[in-house]
Write a structure and sequence with these properties.
about 675 residues, mainly alpha, 5 strands
């Protein structure tokens, strides 16, 4: 028999049913939390691909497990718990709905709602089973998808949160009572041929509420609040779901831009010796030590690329652990001992008088620094013997101790100045040429921002020592004129030091880890692509530093709140958008180093001009005329004008593009 209800009872039916639905949902999430605490918390990293991968490569795991984003990976334990809770809830619903005396879930029964066939007849067991399937069909599909993903341990934050948002929006629409039907049926009811009814207990409660004057007075306000809250909650999921479905495809050239040029060199590579620079003191084969650690890290990185559907062109050989290998720790790895700040006096060594020179030597105690770090010194000396330098692609770039490397390189630069000042001019120039060749290979290799910053510091210090060596031993420098000029000459057809690929290479070494943990959509990667292109152009055109260049990059916002607002309005998952937009800020700020690379290339041009002046024996009073007539490749690349000459201080110089600092190069004439 059909249940006939008035408007107030129909409203109560809709309200009670909604409360029952949310009670069932709350029970599901509560069960999920209990399962996480009891079963899944201890092995939470096993449900994230990168966590499993870290366990598969135990020698690399300690380096990875310090990575802050592991917290996202640990959060992946929520998803298997959610699927397990879903299986339990499905069994519980089957039990509840299949009982002839019940025909309702726990939440619906508590709200006073029963299931009936359309027209009032009792529900058969088969129809009750069908209703259980139809009622949560979107949720069943979502949990089935999660279950398939769990079998491949490929869950990530973007996919799962996007699926939750879309599923919640579809499920709310799927079970939304339709107001234009007198019985307030929804899509699941229509497809299963059922309807929900108020039981006698709930009808009695409604009549008691109807007779309350106070409740009758506030009933319109209550109905407005309840309806409004439901609509707002629906919009909370529906609007992000529409944004997620609008997420565009990734730009077709994006992956080729980031990963197309990656290579790996496994023989005669100075980087392996560099990786072994800080190996424990007991390690005799520091080169083999560095090669082993690099193959392990490169294998880790390659498997991340393959997980994301990319097949690199290079190969990674099986790791070969050298004899006597000792795993590095904070206690056993070598660190630089001493204060290199006192070495700054060597950069103006030739300008000092005898007393200042003695004070510098006593304060710096150069020989003492070398002796205190004799193992680092010996390993650093070996670097120049290798013909190649290349960092095989690995997460974050090189894994060497950057600070220790920069410190020992400063000691080497000061030592070369000391050799030249003591009359060992040929040795000083020969070593300078060898290390300059190494540093140039470093600068012209694909590396992360942090690696390139270290190489820049080393090269700057080494170039400063060249001015001192030139002042002490101009004849020895001129004897190696061709070698020096070849090292300082940059190909005008190529970007200096791969400055155009600086941001691209840096992000390519980081993105696979973020993709494995956070995931990513087309919008976030396309946004970065829009900013990488202007950065590449900036690296190729040193004279163009106009701020208009950056207007095409929407991520160049001054405040994080602007980026968060952009993340909300852009297509795609707003949570993923916000995470990546915050990460991209650090990437875009790397453009400052591009400016530094152009400044260094300008210094090299100025040095080449100075060497030509010395070779041709120009008198000091004629240098200004000589600079004015210099060819284009020996002019200031920022202004396209000639370098300036200070006759009193005997130096060439140019104004720094940013803050008008003078960048000099002294000539011993």
């Amino acid at each position: 028999m059909k249940q006939v209800l008035d408007k107030y009872q129909l409203w109560a039916l809709w309200n009670y049913r909604r409360i029952g639905e949310w009670a069932d949902c709350f029970l599901w999430w509560l069960l999920t939390g209990l399962l996480i605490a009891v079963f899944f918390l201890e092995n939470r990293n096993d449900y994230c691909f990168i966590g499993v991968l870290a366990k598969d490569i135990p020698d690399y795991a300690p380096s990875y497990l310090n990575f802050p984003l592991l917290r996202f990976c640990g959060g992946a334990a929520f998803w298997p718990a959610l699927v397990a809770a879903w299986l339990c809830m499905v069994l519980l619903h089957l039990f509840c709905f299949l009982l002839p005396s019940r025909r309702a879930s726990i939440g619906l029964k508590a709200a006073g709602i029963d299931l009936h066939r359309t027209g009032g007849a009792d529900v058969s067991t088969l129809r009750a089973l069908w209703y259980v399937i139809i009622r949560y069909l979107p949720t069943h599909l979502f949990c089935g998808y999660l279950l398939l993903k769990l079998l491949h341990t490929a869950l990530d934050f973007h996919v799962t949160t996007s699926a939750v948002i879309v599923t919640a929006a579809v499920q709310m629409i799927w079970t939304l009572p339709l107001f234009f039907l007198g019985t307030r049926r929804n899509l699941a009811d229509i497809l299963s041929g059922t309807e929900m009814r108020l039981n006698e207990k709930s009808l009695g409660r409604i009549e008691a509420l109807r007779q309350s004057r106070f409740r009758n007075a506030v009933r319109p306000l209550r109905m407005l609040i309840e309806t409004g809250s439901y609509v707002l909650l629906l919009l909370f999921f529906l609007v992000p779901a529409v944004q997620i479905l609008r997420d565009p495809a990734v730009h077709p050239e994006y992956e080729a831009l980031l990963y197309g040029g990656q290579t790996a060199l496994w023989e005669d590579n100075a980087y392996f010796a560099l990786e072994g620079l800080n190996a424990p003191q007991e390690v005799e084969d520091s080169y083999g030590y560095g090669r082993y650690r690099t193959t392990v890290a490169a294998g880790f990185y390659r498997r991340l690329l393959e997980q994301e559907g990319m097949t690199p062109d290079y190969t990674v050989p099986p790791p070969e652990k050298p004899a006597g290998y000792i795993a590095p720790t904070r206690k056993n790895r070598l660190s630089f001992y001493g204060d290199t700040n006192v070495l700054s006096c060597f950069n103006v060594f030739f300008q000092m008088d005898e007393e200042s020179r003695k004070a510098c030597l006593e304060t710096a105690d150069l020989n003492g620094m070398i002796w205190d770090n004799y193992i680092l010194w010996e390993r650093f000396e070996v670097l120049r013997n290798y013909q190649n330098f290349s960092i095989p692609p690995q997460f974050g770039g090189g894994r060497f101790d950057r600070r220790a490397l920069a410190d020992i390189a400063r000691v080497k630069s000061a030592h070369l100045v000391y050799l030249a000042s003591q009359g060992y001019t040929e040795d000083a120039v020969a070593e300078w040429v060898d290390y300059m060749r190494l540093y140039r290979q470093m600068l012209e290799s694909s590396a992360s921002l942090r690696d390139k910053a270290t190489y820049m510091l080393m090269t700057q210090s080494h170039f400063n020592s060249f001015q001192e060596i030139l002042s002490h031993a101009p004849d020895a420098v001129m004897a190696r004129y061709d070698d020096v000029v070849a090292l300082l000459t940059l190909d005008p057809a190529k970007t200096p030091f791969l400055a155009d690929r600086l941001l691209v290479d840096d992000w390519a070494l980081r993105e696979p880890v973020f993709l494995s943990i956070i995931g990513g959509g087309g919008n976030t990667r396309n946004r970065l692509y829009e900013c990488l292109i202007p950065a590449m152009i900036l690296g190729r055109t040193p004279a163009d530093f106009l701020p208009e260049r950056h207007r095409s990059c929407s991520l160049r916002r001054t405040h994080r709140y602007e980026l968060l607002a952009l993340a909300m309005t852009d297509p795609g998952n707003f949570l993923t958008n916000a995470l990546y937009y915050m990460l991209y800020r650090g990437v875009i700020q790397g453009e400052e180093m591009v400016y530094g690379m152009h400044t260094l290339s300008a210094r090299w041009r100025m040095a080449l001009l100075g060497l030509q002046i010395l070779k041709e024996g120009a008198a000091p009073e004629n240098v200004a005329i000589y600079t004015e007539k210099a060819p284009e490749h020996l002019r200031n690349p920022f202004t396209k004008q000639s370098f300036e000459w200070d006759a009193q201080k005997r130096r060439l110089f140019f104004k720094h593009y940013k803050n008008d600092l003078e960048v000099p190069f002294y000539l011993p004439i």
